Amino acid sequence: MDKADLRIAVLMGTKDGAAFIDEQLQSLLAQSHRLVDLWISDDGSIDGTTAIIEAWQSRWPKGRMTLVEGPRQGFAANFRSMILDRRIDADGYAFCDQDDIWEPDRLESAISWMQGHDAKTPLMYCSRTATMTETGSLVGHSPLFARPPSFRNALVQSIAGGNTILLNAAARDLLAKACARTGFVSHDWWAYLIVTAAGGIVRYDPRPLVRYRQHAANLVGANVSWKARASRLGRLFKGEFAGWTDLNLDGLAVNRDLLTEDAAACLDLFIRGRQGSLIHRLAGLRKSGVYRQTVSGTLGLYLAFILGRI
C-alpha cells in the first residue's frame, strides 16, 4: 500500500487543556500526511476543553474526529483505555498530548521508516523533542541518545516521550494484548518494553519532531536541564525508580509468553541482579547486559544497584 493511503489514528488524552489544545489541533491539521483519524479521550475536563474539541469536529478534513469519555483514573489509565478500544482501527497509531506542537512531518517521517519493514513485525518509531515554555519560546532539547534501542535498555530507561511514538498495527495489537492483562507506569515506557521484549523493532529519530510544552508542574518531565536530570537521579537513589521497576516487572511476568527467549533470559538475569548479596547483584546485572544510554547513566545504574535502590 502506498504510504499516502495509510490511515493513522492519533490517540489524544485530554484533561483541562483549553489553554493550548487549539494550537495542538492546528499542528495536527498541518500534518503532511493526509489520512488522520483523531480519537480524543477526555478525562473529566471542566475548563471548556470539550467545547473546543466539539467545535473542531465538524471541520476536521483528514478523517474522523471522535470524542470519548475517559476512565478518570489518571493519564496512564486514560491512554490504556484508548490502546484497548477496538473501535479504533487504523494502519498506524500515534500517541498525542493536548498541549504540544507537532512538526508538519512528524507522522510522515515515521510512516516512511515503517514502509521499509515487514508490516507483520511490531514496529515503534519515536524521536527526540524540542522543549518550549508555556508561551511557546524554544528553550532546549531532550537528550540525544546514540546507543541502539533494545529490551536491555528498556528495562532501565524510557528513551522517548509518548508524544513522539507511532506504532504500526502489529505493535498496537501486541500492546493491546499486554495491556489487557495489566496496567503500567506510563504508556511510552510500557510500549518500549513490550515491543522490544517481543522482538519488535524500535527506531529512535535524533531529530526533534515534537515541541514539548514545559509547565512549572512538569519541570522534571522534559529532562532538558542539569537540574531536571539531577532530580531524576535523586528519585533513583530514593528508591522511587525501584517502585516503577517493580510495576514493570510485574507486568512483564504476566506477559511472559510474549517475550522472545533472549528477552526472557535477560529478564531473569536482571531480576536475579536485584536480589541477594552485593556480589550476586552486580554479577546478575553484568550478565544481563542492561544499559542506559549514557556512560554517566550506566554508572548511576550500577551505583543504584550497589545501594539497593533499584
Tell me the series of helices and strands, N- to C-terminal: EHEHEHEEHEEHEHHEHHHHH
**Beta-strand content bin:** 15-25%
Structure annotation, total helices? 12
Q: Let me know the largest β-sheet.
A: 9 strands, mixed
- Which stretches of 5+ consecutive residues score pLDDT under 50? none
Principal-axis shape: globular
State the distance separating the first and last CA atoms: 45 Å
Radius of gyration: 19 Å
Task: Supply the helix-strand structural class.
Answer: alpha/beta
Provide the helix percentage. 40-55%
Number of strands: 9
- Overall mean pLDDT score? 92
Describe this entry's structure for a reader.
Helices cover 40% and strands 18% of the residues. The protein is of the alpha/beta class and 310 residues long. Strands 1, 2, 3, 4, 5, 6, 7, 8 and 9 form a nine-stranded mixed sheet that branches. Strand 2, helix 2 (49-57) and strand 3 (65-69) form a beta-alpha-beta unit. The longest helix has 14 residues, at 240-253. The protein is globular and about 65 Å long. The mean pLDDT is 92.
